[in-house]
Amino acid sequence: MTDRPRTQHILASGLVALVGIWVAWLSFTGTPARAFLFPRIISVVFVALALWTFGKALLGKTRVGPGLSAIAMRNILPGIVVLLIYVFWAAQALGFYTASTIAFFILLSLYDPAPHGAGRTWVKRVLITAGFLAVMYGLFALLLGVFTPREILF
Amino acid sequence: MEFLFYFGDVFTPFNFMLLLIGTIGGLILGATPGLSPTMAVALLIPFTFKLDATQGLILLGAAYTSTVAGGAVSAILLKIPGAPANIATTLDGHTMAKNGQGARALQLSFISSAIGGVFGVLLLIFLTPVLAEWALAFGPSHLFWLAILGVTVIGSLDSSSVVKGLLSGCIGLWLATIGFDDVMGAQRFIFHSSVSGGINIIPALIGLFAIPQVITMFAKGRHQHDAEVLKVEKSPIMDAIREVFRRSRALSIGTLTGSFIGLIPGVGGQIAGLVAYDQSRKASPERKKFGTGHSEGVIAAESANNAMVGPSLVPLLTLSIPGSPTAAVLLGGLLIHGIFPGSDLFENYPDVAWTFINSMLIGQILMCVFGLYVAGLAARVAQVPNAVMAAVVLALAVFGSYSVQNSMGDVYIMAALGTGMYFLERFGFSAAPLVLGLILGPIAEANFVQGAMIANATSNMGSYFFTGALNLTLIGIVVASIAYSVWMELRQRRFLSKEDTLEQQEQTS
Fold first, then answer.
1. Closest partner residue to B403 among A56, A104, A146, by Cβ?
2. d(CA A79, nearest CA chain B) in Å
């Protein structure tokens, strides 16, 4: 195992172990005790397995999980930022359909392999986004009547 | 033979229309690489809210059946398995297609899928009522151990690392305890207002299965695989039917292997196809032809992965223990309609149970008929760019999660769990045991608390939970499944794991 995945494994398993310890601490200090009986049993196993995993990562004996490459992280980051803004802010602030359309267009533009310089590419992206909006609105709002937060336009 | 009374219900116009939509939609979704059957069924759940329980289950069951078979289309025509269950199909199916026998490979695939699938559903029909009656003998301690068994079996057998699989199961069991305690009404682990009512299963399922896939598509960046869709020429269907029956050894090995593997909780179709392919190769006098476009390879693999579908629902419908992630999603589909599987299902809702099972039987035949016509279209859909697919799945995940309770909190939970799961998967953790833990956690806890009360009133906890033939048998299976997986891991002779599958898919794409 190279140094980078080893460090990543230590960080990841360490984080899981910390969560386990936090769960165990809350379980054993929470009241009434009877309400925390089952979580206590779970947390003991949780902590034991998490510490075992952390120990293996420290010793560099982790065999599964490829970790994250720099290229993958660079590719993922813009998408995750869009995902988080869409879910945690835009969907409610702008309305589902407006936010979904904007997120769709941005993601399409970010990850579409077609060249950004060509005018036709952008026309195609706009048309695909419009088609997506029409299908989503027709399906959820008109056909299924699903209630969604509506702010701008829809 | 009670199921015969409810056969007519499948053919009411609306039910049949849903069956058709589920079948055709499932074939197309199944052919799309990256959309696993579990994820397809999870994304379809919100569409069932306006339907009654029977109709919802017909749609989900049809999608489950046909996504598994639909995965063969891209496996044969693009050499990209639509689902992990179709990996073995690429070995001979794609070679056949390259040799100009694409249509024949598709025909063999759908016919053997249908035969295997029908056998599997018949097993479901005849085994389920017997086991459901037997399940009445289960008390709280047995149900507690069964729930633990469900988590440990899937945690140890479905993961590349036994410890990480079990740890994933523990995380799921912990997540299930978040919210208010049922007995004392105490608040537990409520660190944000979104989780004050606990974690709703449907948004959690959508997040855990769909979001990691979306982020995996992001990880590929602006790369686009340019897999060529091999042309499908015409081929007489009768020749294919004759060939399937002429290769009866491969068909029976595939069907029996798939059915048996389907019955084992946690194992599922990912290995059914590969084990059947391997066994069929070993038993064949033409074993050297395997891998060079031999029809027996396609027949064994495809009959196995569809034969697994019916039996994989047996533990769910009889003991309320979902034996696979997709069965867990179907359990979610049942629970939103207030229906609990087990003997209660067959006593109080026989119409729901039998119409659903019968629809799966009819669905196998429809899947075979439509599969051959939809294959060309499905292969085209399989070429939809990652960017479009990721954006569509993300939007569906957001709409689906919100529509469960009209709550943004559910959307936050979906996104948080999904994003977290992507990173956990990169470090060897697995979504399947986590989901099983989340679903079986409340069952385990409720029966543990009930058992503890009985134990305090009668004997003590130790003798209540650790004595008795059934308790000891269940504990024995828990220990044996873990010990077996540890042994296999130490010997480094593990079956193809989910992670290997994903890596293999990445390599092939």
1. A146
2. 6
B1 DSSP 8-state letter: -
- Chain A neighbors of B398, CB-CB under 8 A: 86-87, 91, 96, 100
CA distances from A89 to A83, A149, B424 (A): 10, 12, 25
CA distance B363 to chain A (A): 24
ipTM exceeding 0.85? yes
Nearest to A39 among B177, B211, B414 (CB): B177
Q: Which of B427, B492, B505 is the best mutation test for A, with the most CBs of A within 10 A?
A: B427
Whether A153 contacts chain B with CB within 8 A? no
0.90 cut: is pTM over it?
Answer: no
B234 sits in the region (left: phi over 0; alpha: psi -120 to 50; else beta) called: beta
B445 contacts A128 by C-beta, under 8 angstroms: no
- Determine the 3-state secondary structure of B265 from DSSP: coil
Q: What are B15-54's pLDDT values in tens digits? A: 999 999 999 888 888 877 667 778 788 888 878 877 888 8
In which element (H, E) is residue B187 found? strand B187-188
Is A49 in contact with B167 (CB distance < 8 Å)? Answer: yes
CB B305, CB B501: distance < 8 Å: no
Residue from B460, B181, B477, B200 nearest B321 by CA: B477
Task: Please choose, from the candidates B109, B181, B506, the residue with its C-alpha nearest in 3D space to the C-alpha of residue A37.
Answer: B181
Measured distance CA(B440)–CA(B417) in Å, rounded:
17
